[in-house]
Amino acid sequence: MPNVVIVGAQWGDEGKGKIIDLLAENADSVVRYQGGNNAGHTVVIEGKKHILHLIPSGILHKGKLCIIGNGVVIDPTALIAEIEELTAKGIEIGENLKISELAHVIFPYHRALDTANETKRGSGKIDTTHRGIGPAYNDKFARIGIRMIDLMHPDRLEKRIQRNLEEKNFMFKQYYAVTELNSRDIVGPYLALGRRLKPFVTDTVTLINRMLDEKKKVLFEGAQGTFLDIDFGTYPFVTASHPTAGGASTGTGVGPTRIEKILGIVKAYTTRVGSGPLPTEISDGGEDLRTRGREFGATTGRPRRCGWFDAVVVRRAQVLNHFEQMAVTKLDVLTGIPTLYICNEYLINGERVSSFPASLEDVESIQPVYEELPGWNEDISGAKNINQFPKNTRRYLDRIEELVGAKISVISIGEERSQTIMLDPFF
Ligand code: GDP
Ligand code: IMO
Ligand code: MG
């Protein structure tokens, strides 16, 4: 198996966790490269559901090195809670988990700022996960962020927290009119968290590059999805990092030529959680699809907005990530829907457009142009190969391949590991 970036092709929740867990069996290591505990990656093994937020989705396999790269923002309290939850389930976490010393840390003032910002935005809110992700990346780029390595140094940590709080408290008081925070309540607990996490913190750049020197196989686990990317997403309704494949290089310290393949994870329809444009959203928010697909957020439990397959979106994701192969997920969810719709063009101000527009106003005025495909009623969730699929299922997949311009290598027809059809010997 090659070294692969696994990237969401839509607005997140494409089923990355399931596919990563599956591919991890043949890999040596799984590395998260961006985002934080805004992510919720679900892995279901024999009916048992595990939702991973910060820990790579390879952790359920014994002996796979799971790495949290420098591009991730880490809430140490959330990370420890996740370690404890997994440990309580009997999943061993020790030498198999490594954390980059360069990763930036989320502090209580980031979470408070996230919520305060959202309140200020009022009806224009982004509907973030309130995990402090955006404010933590803000500090990173403002060059006042605090990194994992700093958690191990009491003097340094205290000074930096005080410096940051001086600015944040001014904002809390003068602009947001919310309660100020006290550095004493943060420094002590964060030093304790630093001591807990110290055994895991290391130079992951050297570690990953050495694995690649030794021809070991590394999976790069994207969080969120292409259309939540800070540059390429539906700005400003995006997250604050680079989920796109390029982020795997900067988020881990691995040169781009060392990455051999990109696998786009593509849901067989479209979902989005939070506000912002969703051109193919079904007028009632897609309640039927939501019920069929059990589309509720793995992190926040919020209902996901649902819509038809948008080929313009996935084609754009194909270009941005240059994935030549796709994993199509949740195909089983479409069973029983008499007519399926695929959008391959937009009408914007009366003009037909087949590429994704840059301006938010244009995106918001999109009227999708649909083609209709006949659905199928047969249960496909137990199929072992595509020959067992009804004709209309294959037709739907063929049309997706044709419109996106990438090969379908993996088909997921249920949440269990066994409900997957691999069409490519690589994976
Ligand atoms: P991620 O964030 O991309 O890892 O995706 P989430 O875990 O947030 O959401 C995907 C949901 O769909 C999870 O509840 C998965 O267990 C479930 N799932 C994944 N693949 C399939 C599939 O092929 N069919 C069905 N029915 N459910 C799936
Ligand atoms: P996974 O990895 C779906 C969305 C939020 C919000 C926007 C910004 O499970 O696919 P943030 O808290 O990141 O500043 O919120 O991004 N969002 C996700 N949507 N899946 C995710 O992750 C998401 N992570 C963030 O709902 O609209
Ligand atoms: Mg998710």
Detailed description of the structure:
With 427 residues, the chain is of the alpha/beta class. It folds into two domains: 4-95 and 203-422, Alpha-Beta Complex (Adenylosuccinate Synthetase, Chain A, domain 3), CATH 3.90.170.10; 104-200, Adenylosuccinate Synthetase, subunit A, domain 2 (Orthogonal Bundle). Helices cover 31% and strands 20% of the residues. The protein has twelve helices and 20 strands. It has helices at residues 16-24, 76-88, 108-121, 133-141, 154-176, 184-197, 204-213, 246-250, 287-293, 311-321, 360-364, 391-404, and strands at residues 4-8, 29-32, 41-45, 48-52, 65-68, 73-74, 97-100, 104-105, 201-202, 218-221, 261-267, 270-272, 305-307, 309-310, 325-329, 339-348, 351-353, 367-374, 407-412, 420-422. The strands form five sheets. Strands 9-7-5-2-10-1-11-15-19-20 form a ten-stranded mixed beta sheet, with helices on both faces. Strands 14, 16, 17 and 18 form a four-stranded mixed beta sheet that branches. α3 packs across α4 and α3 packs parallel to α5 (154-176). The radius of gyration is 22 Å and the shape is globular. Bound molecules: guanosine-5'-diphosphate, 6-O-phosphoryl inosine monophosphate (IMO) and magnesium ion. 6-O-phosphoryl inosine monophosphate (IMO) binds at residues 8, 11-13, 38-41, 126-129, 131, 133-134, 223-225, 228, 239-240, 273-274, 298.
